[in-house]
Amino acid sequence: MADLPAIAEILDEAARTANAVAQISETTPLTSDDAYRVQALSLERRYARGERRVGVKMGLTSRAKMAQVGVDDVVWGRLTSAMRIEEGGHLSRAAFVHPRIEPEIAFLMKAPLSGEVSAMEALAAVEAVAPALEVIDSRYHDFRFDLGDVIADNASSAGFVIGPPAPVSHDIANLGMVLTVNGHVAETGSSAAIMGHPLRALVAAARMVATAGEELRPGDIVLAGAATAAVPLMPGQAIALQVEGLGAVAVNIG
Ligand code: 0L1
Ligand code: MG
Q1: Which of 165, 192, 194, 237 is the most buried (most CB within 10 A)?
Q2: What is the ipTM of this complex?
Q3: How far is ligand 2, taken at its centre, from the CA of residue 57, in Å?
Q4: Which residues, in sequence order, are bridge partners of residue 78?
Q5: Of ligand 1's atoms, which has the minimum distance to the CA of residue 60?
Q6: Roughly what angle, to the nearest 10 degrees, separates helices 32-48 and 4-17?
């Protein structure tokens, strides 16, 4: 039987020290259920160090990313206080293994949400929406993983930046999103690439956290998923995301 606490320690240490490790699946293929247990155990280690859970991220929310990993459902991970990067602030490339950044939409929750909910119920629990950047960083060599690997690795969660919040009355179904690096366009996409509508990612988040006995809580951030491919991060980059009608969010890489 797999030693789930030992696997959680390996992945937590890999993230904490920014040292890549071999895929867990090379020796111990994990079911999704066991992989989510590993994720929860590795997050317990972060909480014990003083980090707080501040929300969740949805991953593999575009058809392109699902096809890349060979799955047909989204994944989720937990966001902690230590992953938050100030809007317009700096992050150190050296604190990560091989970080990438991707353009997202974030929800800020005002009411609890959990289980099977409709899109209308999900929307009613949202305080605000915002442009967001997610830093992902697989703790596996070469950013290679199977589904169990990536779930256990907290869905590659590494950092996030939230832009100015906008009222939920804003229609987020199909917003143009432009990611620039040092003023040059790196990726363009639409919020519609996030499961067809970012609100579907929130519905999925409510469903998936419930399977772990958790809920989305007031004040939580929910990252809905990426609208384009992720861009590798290097020192000296100024990263900015402009979301049509919603605003901008930026971060500098040192
Ligand atoms: O946020 C994401 O969609 C990433 C999920 C994990 C897969 C990856 O690291 O690309
Ligand atoms: Mg993401």
Answers
A1: 194
A2: 0.94
A3: 7
A4: 56
A5: 3
A6: 50
- Which of 224, 107, 220, 227 has the alpha carbon at shortest distance from 166? 107
Residue bearing the CA closest to ligand 1, atom 1: 59
The tens digit of pLDDT for each residue in 118-139 reads 999 999 999 999 999 999 999 9
Domain tally for the chain?
1
Q: Is the pLDDT of residue 66 over 90?
A: no
Domain with 153 in it: what CATH number?
3.90.850.10
E strands along 145-210, which residues? 157-162, 166-167, 176-181, 184-190
For the cut 80, the answer to whether the pLDDT of residue 69 exceeds it is no
Of 62, 139, 156, the one to substitute when testing ligand 1's pocket (max ligand atoms within 8 A of C-beta) is: 156
> Among positive and negative, which fits the CA dihedral 36, 193, 221, 181?
positive
Query: Residue whose CA is closest, atom 9 of ligand 1?
Result: 156
Mutate to test the pocket of ligand 1, among 60, 138, 139 (most ligand atoms within 8 A of CB): 60
Rounded distance from Cα 194 to ligand 1 centre (Å): 13
Please give the Cα distance from 185 to 214 (Å, whole number): 39
Q: What is the pLDDT of residues 78-109, one digit of tens each?
A: 999 999 999 999 999 999 999 999 999 999 99
Distance 155 CA to ligand 1 centre (A): 6
